[in-house]
Specification:
Blueprint (H helix, E strand, L loop, with lengths): L7 E4 L6 E4 L12 E9 L2 E11 L4 E9 L2 E6 L9 E2 L10 E8 L9 E9 L4 H11 L8 H8 L14 E2 L6 E4 L8 E7 L9 E8 L1 H4 L5 H9 L3 E3 L2 E3 L4 H7 L7 E11 L5 E12 L2 E4 H8 L9 H7 L3 H8 L1 H23 L10 E5 L7 E6 L4 H28 L5 E3 L5 H13 L12 H10 L6 H11 L4 E3 L23 H17 L14 H34 L6 E9 L3 E6 L4 E6 H8 L3 E3 L5 E4 L5 E3 L3 E10 L4 E9 L11
Parallel strand pairs: 7-9, 10-17, 11-18
Antiparallel strand pairs: 1-2, 3-4, 5-6, 5-8, 8-9, 12-13, 13-16, 14-15, 16-17, 19-20, 21-22, 23-24, 23-29, 24-25, 26-27, 27-28, 29-30
């Protein structure tokens, strides 16, 4: 990562952490490049300099062409790009337009500016299409696939061939269904619950989780595989998805489309009344999904009868199209969904008993007009209702169980699996959390947060606290970031000894690696692994390198998705300058007060400077970091406070919404809440 101030950090691919690169020692490297670093120990960790560029991460830049004497240069939009390259050619490009350029000559040193060639004009700044294209280029996410990858994808069959069925279990008689968002285009998992003969309704059941067998169509070393290994993840934007695999695979032959035979890797297990799992079976199979359900449909089925004039189920069903309501009213479908929910409840209860953490931190969901995808209809939180949350959780619990089961098999056999690891929180961060919690009226012993049960207890204790959302956000920030690694250190938040990602190989490359590892194991042990030859067992070093790269790419993709949502939010609020909203303070920082309004669900900032001008006094952040205090009057703004704010600016260019403080609503003072 390159900082706009001129220094940077290089992440070691062996998992050894980051190396600080001081200003002047970047060696012409750009943000996102893979580099060779000469490093040494320093007082603040490791410091070094870049001695060689191994692989360039950027091939294109966006910006505006400016005249500089007789020369023309590109003013780059991304502040992390420190060079101002010369523009080749004589193309007449208006200076008020944003252009995308191909880098024709990279800088050879810190003083070299490099050269670029204008490819095309993106459009005027502040336009949605222009700014979204800029974000994709900024995070090196390419909407287009290479011709070789596209050709390989197009050559894939449209149907399951007879030869593909060899060495597979025929599970087409099972009543699999997919459950996904309404706008999903690829379905990489399907689920089914079977009753066990002779067992009552409260007895054991057999659960089947089928996952698209992507590894059958994406072989190691192919053009598709190389591109998927570089992308690592699909990127989901409000108005489009940029898949990890070409659509000929991701939305067709690899997708578990209803009423079509599809290849799958299936995790099957017996689940008893206490949520314990045994009789685990991993195998390649052929399945035939019976239904494609949405979370909204499942929510309507699971909704409980209300006490008013209408049942919640009726209210939810009314929001669905006629064909979707027919699915909700189908008795067989309702029975299957209810059985899946019961199995998920068992798994969740067991997971919570062992101390797993559940943090309810909603994210932004952009709702677009179906007839005009450029028009934003609303911005809402994800899982806005209890019913929708339960529908999502149903699938999550089944996927968690399958992922954990696969990881435990890999751990027992010492396979070179890519584990999803989550280390325990840092003691310093826990001490900071305790200080913040105390400032907000909650007493907590940081030593009791070193295990998942302690965190779970803290979350339960604060579940009804008036500043619950803020406390849970600070708790989230105190936890380490989950990563991919071949070294299994367990998963703290899930209270799991071993966890992997296996259930989404269409959109995550680590899952594809996991499939290859399991197939190689099955072939070695004489199990059902699909047509031979099975994928070879990967080398541990190779797997670790891809695990580290996937961790880095995951963060990049997530940042791109967040920036794009911020862009859409700014665009939506641009016509609301002057409007007032109720808001909650979500954080305090050097720029000012971060707030969140609920309708629409939008984040923004009250700048300290504007607050000082309006109130005529200097404000400072107190030692706890959760209050902004006026130095003349003692007026305070605290995380969790309810406010009335006014929109004063919505910058599409900066992807930011700014507010002015109007008044504080009647708030609950922090109260003592001891251990």
């Amino acid at each position: 990562m390159v900082h706009p101030a001129g220094f940077g950090f290089a992440e070691r691919l062996d998992g050894g952490g980051s190396v600080y690169i001081p200003r002047g020692r970047l060696g012409g490297a750009l943000d996102g490049d893979e580099v060779e670093v000469l490093s040494w120990a320093s007082e603040k960790g490791f410091e070094g300099e870049i001695v060689r560029i191994v692989r360039r991460g950027r091939t294109r830049l966006t910006g505006s062409v400016r005249s500089l004497g007789r020369a023309r240069v590109l003013e780059c939009d991304d502040p992390r790009v420190l060079m101002r390259p010369d523009v080749e050619g004589d193309a007449d490009v208006p200076e008020d337009m944003v252009v995308v350029c191909t880098i024709t000559q990279y800088p050879q040193s810190g003083r070299d500016t490099g050269r670029v060639k204008v490819d095309r004009v993106l459009g005027p700044p502040n336009a949605l299409a222009t700014e979204q294209a800029k974000i994709l280029l900024e995070y090196n996410i390419d909407p287009e696939f290479s011709p070789d990858a596209l050709a390989e994808a197009e050559a894939a069959p449209d149907i399951v061939m007879d030869a593909d069925r060899l060495n597979r279990a025929d599970l087409r008689a099972l009543e699999f269904m997919t459950i996904d968002p309404v706008d999903a285009r690829d379905y990489d998992d399907a689920v089914c619950v079977e009753t066990i003969e002779g067992e009552g309704p409260e007895g054991p059941v057999r659960v089947h989780v089928a996952v698209a067998d992507v590894s059958h169509y994406v072989r190691e070393g192919t053009a598709i595989d190389r591109e998927a290994a570089w992308r690592c993840f699909s990127c989901y934007l409000p108005n489009r998805a940029i898949p990890m695999l070409p659509k000929a695979l991701s939305s067709h032959i690899c997708s578990l489309i209803p009423d079509e035979d599809r290849l799958a890797m299936v995790v099957s297990f017996r689940l008893d009344a206490a949520g314990e799992i045994d009789e685990l079976d991993l195998r390649a199979a052929v399945i035939h999904s019976r239904r494609r359900m949405t979370y909204e449909q499942v929510a309507a089925i699971l909704a409980e009868k209300g006490t008013g004039a209408e049942a919640k189920v009726d209210a939810l069903a009314e929001t669905l199209p006629a064909d979707a309501r027919a699915e909700v009213d189908d008795v067989a479908v309702r029975r299957r969904v209810t059985a899946l929910r019961a199995a998920a409840d068992r798994l969740r209860a067991r997971r919570l008993r062992r101390g797993a953490i559940e943090l309810n931190v909603p994210e932004i969901k952009i709702l677009l007009d179906q007839d005009d995808p450029e028009r934003i209809r609303d911005i809402v939180p994800t899982r806005a209702t209890r019913e929708i949350a339960r529908a999502y959780n149903l699938i999550e619990e089944l996927m968690l169980a399958a992922n954990e089961a696969v990881a435990r098999v890999a751990e027992q056999r010492k396979l070179p699996m890519v584990y999803r690891v989550h280390a325990p929180p840092d003691q310093t961060k826990l001490a900071q959390l305790a200080s913040v919690a105390e400032a907000l009226g909650v007493t907590v012993d940081p030593e009791k947060l070193v295990n998942p049960r302690g965190v779970q207890k803290f979350l339960g204790k604060t579940a009804h606290h008036p500043r619950r959302q803020a406390l849970h956000m600070f708790m989230l920030r105190s936890l380490t970031q989950a990563q991919y690694n071949v070294e299994n250190v367990g998963h703290f938040a899930l209270a799991s000894d071993a966890y992997s990602h296996f259930t989404s190989p269409i959109r995550r490359y680590p899952d594809l690696i996991a499939h290859r590892v399991i197939k190689a194991m099955l072939a070695r042990e004489g199990g059902l692994c699909g047509p031979l030859p099975a994928p070879p067992m990967p080398e541990r070093e190779q797997t670790q390198e891809q695990a580290i790269r996937s961790s880095l790419r995951e963060r990049t993709t997530a940042e791109c998705e967040r920036e794009t949502k911020s862009l859409f939010a700014a665009l939506y609020m641009r016509d609301r300058v002057g409007d007032r909203f109720e808001a909650t303070i979500s954080g305090i920082g050097s720029p000012g007060v971060f707030v969140q309004i609920e309708q629409p669900f939008v984040d923004g900032l009250i700048r300290t400077a504007s607050l000082e001008r309006e109130r005529g006094e200097v404000y400072q952040v107190d030692t706890s970091g959760v209050r902004l205090v006026g130095q003349r009057t003692g007026h305070t703004l605290t995380v969790g406070d309810r406010l009335v704010v006014e929109v004063v600016d919505a910058s599409v260019l900066r992807r930011r919404v700014e507010f002015a403080f109007v008044m504080r609503l009647a708030s609950t003072s922090p109260s003592s809440d001891g251990e």
